[in-house]
Amino acid sequence: MLAQNILEELKKIVGKENVLTSKEDMIAYSFDATAAMPEVKPDVVVMPENKEQIVEIVKLAGQHKIPIITRGAGTNLSGGTIPIKNGIVLSMLKLDKIIEIDAENLTARVQPGLIIQKLNDAVAPYGLMYPPDPGTVTTATMGGSVSECSGGLRGLKYGVTKDYIMGLEVVMADGSVIRTGGKTVKNVSGYDLTKLFTGAEGTLGIITEITVKLIPAPKYRRSMLAIFDDIDKAGNTIADIISNKVIPATLEIMDNVTIRTVENYAKIGLPVEAEAILILEVDGNIEQIVINEYETVQKICKDNGAVEIKLAQSDKERDAVFAARRAALPALAQVRPTTVLEDATVPRSKIPQMLKALKEIAKKYNLQIGTFGHAGDGNLHPTILTDESDKEEMERVEKAVDEIFKIAIELGGTLSGEHGIGMAKAKYMEWEFGKEGVEVMKKIKDALDPDHILNPGKMFGGN
Asked: What are the extents of the domains in the chain?
């Protein structure tokens, strides 16, 4: 519980209307989109309107050793914005402006509270796009996306958030402000601080401005749905597409559990008897190349046993299929009270092995697991449908999750392709980095945030 004099200081900094203390507000900010995580109420929620206010808040928090948990829309899936040590939740939603669109230099400068889709809507008239495309693109914020280094449906061809962040403005734990990077295409001066803060999950500094790279939007695209009666055939198709040097803009997979659930939810005519479907899109600026790639992908699907391939005949049909893919998580979340969504990522060639392992894990622990995800870049989302009030079942869930990540690491993969570590995966960090690697990260944290006031309890646990 914060002392009254500190609450009064916060009100002086941002105005009393931007300081939330009601019981209802504290409950609303006690959790994020991650299932089966503890709910912890903050002491206060503060909504700054500019960088100068954030600097003053950080200085006040540092003086009194009060934790600060920076929060965007709360759509993250690793427990990253749960205020595990109480303290101040710093909501960035009022810093939601596009500062500049520089079409000549293919860049934009934005505030962290801006919704990602709004940036793409704003640059579209210039024939440009911002490629990172998380499933929650219409609600997730730029600052949250940078902090989690989110990926999305276009990650296979275009990469993830870190590939498009050119510069940042960051408030440090002592209240100082630094700028990293900029608009130049080439910049190799000093340590790459822009990359350091991208994906740091708010543990090293508070991002107040973001400079992003934009690219020309492709003029042509072909979208298709490939239907399989065997998920192994779908997995082999993915590997064959990549080995044939075709890089689709999107290559998504949905298994039968997910297909049935999404169709029941969205009713768009998905083939509910299919064991798996692949959602594919090729794009580019030369029409004949796009046609050639489509024909190559179509042949690979047929050669691997696709029972049917449906080409989207209009933007409406294409948008319906992609809307179904984006509906996978909300649809699955309706089946059972608790939805444990994981983020196991393996090298693309190992997708068939990972899909097989997930089937075996579901059987071994008697769990319902729906699998979907960005299969083309090896990023799968095995989603366990469960009930956290069932203690015995949750023990099986925990064992299954442990095994999922153990196998992912053994296959040369990583703990997270796009969701981050947060609280949910902190215990696995040594599996991937070893004790020595984790110690290096802890030393960086200690150097930049010696009092551990910035998002404590995340990444390594306990800090």
From this structure: 4-91, 98-216, 220-410, 425-463
Report the C-alpha gap between 76 and 144 in whole angstroms: 8
Question: Contact at 8 Å (CB) between 458 and 207?
Answer: no
Structure confidence at residue 129 (pLDDT):
97
Q: What confidence tens digit (pLDDT) does each residue in 39-58 have? A: 999 999 999 999 999 999 99
Residue whose tokens read 């440009």: 128
pLDDT number for residue 410: 96
The class that CATH gives domain 220-410 is alpha beta
Distance CA 364, CA 355 (A): 14
Amino acid letter at 149?
C
Please say whether the beta carbons of 150 and 418 come within 8 A.
Answer: yes
Q: Which CATH architecture has domain 98-216?
A: 2-Layer Sandwich (3.30)
Closest CA to 300 of 358, 353, 362, 248: 248
Distance, in Å, from the CA atom of 299 to the CA atom of 314, rounded to the nearest integer, reads 22
With 0.70 as the threshold, say if the pTM is over it.
yes
Which parts of the chain have pLDDT scores under 70? Answer: 462-463
Phi, psi of 112 (to 5 degrees): -70, -20
Q: Is 399 left (phi over 0), alpha (psi -120 to 50) or beta?
A: alpha
- Contacts made by residues 457-460, CB under 8 angstroms, sequence distance 24+: 457/84, 457/85, 457/423, 458/79, 458/80, 458/84, 458/201, 458/202, 458/203, 458/421, 458/422, 458/423, 458/426, 459/201, 459/203, 459/421, 459/422, 459/426, 459/429, 460/426, 460/429
| pLDDT of 463 | 58
**CA nearest neighbour of 457 among 419, 427, 415, 412:** 427
- CATH topology (fold) of 4-91: 3.30.43
- Beta-bridge partner residues of 454: 68
Closest CA to 402 of 394, 348, 373: 394
317 φ/ψ angles, rounded to the nearest 5 degrees: -65, -45
Structure tokens at 97: 């402006």
- The answer to whether the CB of 53 falls within 8 A of the CB of 440 is no
Sheet holding 19-20, edge to edge: 19-20, 44-46, 88-91, 68-71
Closest CA to 168 of 133, 143, 201: 143
Instruction: Extract the tokens encoding 250.
Output: 């999107």
Nearest of 94, 13, 85, 26 to residue 54 by alpha carbon: 13
User: What is the spatial distance between Cα 440 and Cα 335, in angstroms, rounded to a whole number?
Assistant: 42
Helices (H), 15-163: 23-28, 51-64, 116-123, 142-148, 155-158
